[in-house]
Amino acid sequence: MKTDGLYRASGNLSQVQKIRLQVDQNNLTVLDEEEDVHVLAGALKLFFRELKEPLIPYHAFNKALKASSKSILTFTVIAFVYNFYNREN
C-alpha cells in the first residue's frame, strides 16, 4: 500500500454512495471491481460513520485511549481480551 493520504483524500462521492448501496444489497463484487482506492477508503469511512454503535463503546473509550498511548500492541491485546470476555453481550 503506497498511496499517500489514503483516508485523508476523498473519493468520488457518487461512487462511494454507489458502493454503499450495492453492499447494502449484499453485492460485494462491487468492492473487487472498484479501482480507485480513495473511493474504497471513502466507502469504508462511510461504513464506520454510519454504525449504530461505535467500534469502541463509549464506556471503554478512555481505557482504549490510554492503552493506545502505550503501544499499538498493548491496545490490540487489550481489545482482544475485552472482546473475548464481552462477546456474549
Automatic annotation (TrEMBL):
Supply one GO BP term: signal transduction
Q: Where is the signal peptide?
A: none
* UniProt GO cellular component terms: cytoplasm
A single GO molecular-function term is: GTPase activator activity
SUPFAM superfamilies in alphabetical order: GTPase activation domain, GAP
Q: Which UniProt keywords apply?
A: GTPase activation
**Does this entry carry the keyword Nucleus?**
no
Q: Which InterPro entries match?
A: Rho-GAP, Rho_GTPase_activation_prot, RhoGAP_dom
For the keyword Cell wall biogenesis/degradation, the answer is no
Check the record and name the PANTHER family matching this protein.
Answer: RHO GTPASE ACTIVATING PROTEIN AT 16F, ISOFORM E-RELATED, RHO/RAC/CDC GTPASE-ACTIVATING PROTEIN
Would you tell me the protein name for this molecule?
Rho GTPase-activating protein 15-like
Q: Which gene encodes it?
A: LOC103513205
